[in-house]
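Quick one, C-alpha cells below:
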C-alpha cells in the first residue's frame, strides 16, 4: 500500500520550549537533521504523561515546579526528508506539543498519517484534535488493526471523525508489511496486553535495510510467543516497554497491570552481547518510574548495564 495522500496540519503555536532544543541521538552530528529517513522520539512517558495529574508525591513534585522536567506521552515519528513525508505512531494526549516539536525540527507542517498501537488512553485520544472543534482535517489516514478500527467506527466521539471524513481508517493486518513510501516499510505484530477495547500491536519499521521495533505496551515477555532476546538480535534498534522499574513501585497489586519491570528485562537481556544490549532503548515510563529522575540510582544502573533510555527529540538515523 503506497500512501500518496498528504494532509497539511495547521499548528497552533510557533514557539518551542527549552526542553525541545538540541536533544539528538549519538547518531546525529552538530544537531543537524539527517538527509535520509529517520525516527524521532516525540514522547517517553506512560499514557498520562509526566508529571501525572493530581500527583503530589516526590516523583512528580519537581516536575510540577520545572516544566523542563516534564515529559510527553510515548510516541515516535517516522520522517523522510527526501520526500517530506512524516507519520506518527500513536495519537497521544500531548499530540499538540508533539507535532509542534516535530515541526520545529523538520520545518514541515504536513503529516501523512497516524499508526495506532491500541485503545488505551495514551495511544489514540489525541485523535480528538483532528475533529471539527480543533483542526478539522480532511481524510487523515489512520492505520489501525481490525478491532481498533471497529472501536473507532462504532463509538463516539471517534465515529464522528469517520463520518465527517476528518480521518480515513486504513485497516492493518498482523505480520503484514505495508509500504508507507518507497523508502519506508512498516509491519504491525500482535503482543499480549489488556485488550479491553482493541488488540495491541508493536511495530517493526524498516528503512535502508535496517530495522527498529517499537513495543510501548506488553504484559510480560514470557506471555509472548516471540522470544524477545532473539528479536533484539535480529533488529538494529529496540524501543521497549519500561512502564515500571520494579515490583512494589505502586501501592497496589501490580499483577493487575502487568508490564515487564525494567529490572526483569535487564535480567532477561543479561545474556545479550554488549552490541545487542546497546540496541535497547527503554521507553513509556510511568510517573513513578525513577528512570525519569536525572541522576537516580536506577537510571545509572540501566546505563551501567549497557542499555539506553529514550529521550524526547532523539533522532535515530538508519
Amino acid at each position: 500500500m503506497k500512501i500518496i495522500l498528504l494532509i497539511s496540519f495547521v499548528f497552533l503555536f510557533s514557539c518551542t520550549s527549552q526542553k525541545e532544543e538540541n536533544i539528538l541521538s549519538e547518531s546525529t552530528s552538530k544537531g543537524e537533521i539527517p538527509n535520509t529517513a529517520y525516527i524521532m522520539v516525540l514522547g517517553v512517558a506512560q499514557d498520562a504523561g509526566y508529571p501525572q495529574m493530581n500527583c503530589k508525591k516526590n516523583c512528580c513534585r519537581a516536575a510540577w515546579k520545572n516544566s523542563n522536567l516534564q515529559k510527553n506521552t510515548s510516541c515516535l515519528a517516522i520522517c523522510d526528508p527526501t520526500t517530506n513525508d512524516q507519520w506518527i505512531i500513536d495519537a497521544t494526549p500531548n499530540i499538540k506539543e508533539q507535532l509542534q516539536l516535530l515541526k520545529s525540527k523538520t520545518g514541515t507542517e504536513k503529516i501523512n498519517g497516524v499508526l495506532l498501537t491500541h485503545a488505551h488512553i495514551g495511544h489514540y485520544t489525541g485523535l480528538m484534535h483532528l475533529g471539527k472543534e480543533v483542526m478539522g482535517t480532511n481524510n487523515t489516514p489512520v492505520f489501525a488493526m481490525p478491532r481498533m478500527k471497529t472501536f473507532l467506527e462504532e463509538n463516539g466521539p471517534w465515529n464522528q471523525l469517520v463520518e465527517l471524513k476528518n480521518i480515513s481508517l486504513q485497516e492493518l493486518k498482523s505480520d503484514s508489511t505495508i509500504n508507507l513510501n518507497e523508502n519506508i516499510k512498516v509491519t504491525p505484530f500482535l503482543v499480549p496486553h489488556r485488550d479491553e477495547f482493541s488488540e495491541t500491536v508493536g511495530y517493526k519499521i524498516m528503512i535502508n535495510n535496517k530495522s527498529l521495533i517499537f513495543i510501548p505496551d506488553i504484559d510480560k515477555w514470557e506471555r509472548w510467543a516471540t522470544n524477545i532476546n532473539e528479536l533484539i538480535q535480529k533488529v538494529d534498534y529496540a524501543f521497549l516497554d519500561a512502564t515500571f522499574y520494579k515490583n512494589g513501585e505502586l501501592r497496589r497489586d501490580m499483577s493487575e497491570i502487568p508490564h515487564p519491570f525494567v529490572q526483569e528485562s535487564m535480567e532477561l537481556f543479561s545474556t545479550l552481547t554488549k552490541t545487542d544490549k546497546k540496541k535497547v532503548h527503554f521507553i513509556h515510563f510511568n510517573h513513578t518510574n525513577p528512570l525519569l529522575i536525572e541522576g537516580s540510582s536506577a537510571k545509572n544502573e540501566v546505563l551501567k548495564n549497557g542499555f539506553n533510555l529514550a529521550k524526547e527529540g532523539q533522532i535515530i538515523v538508519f
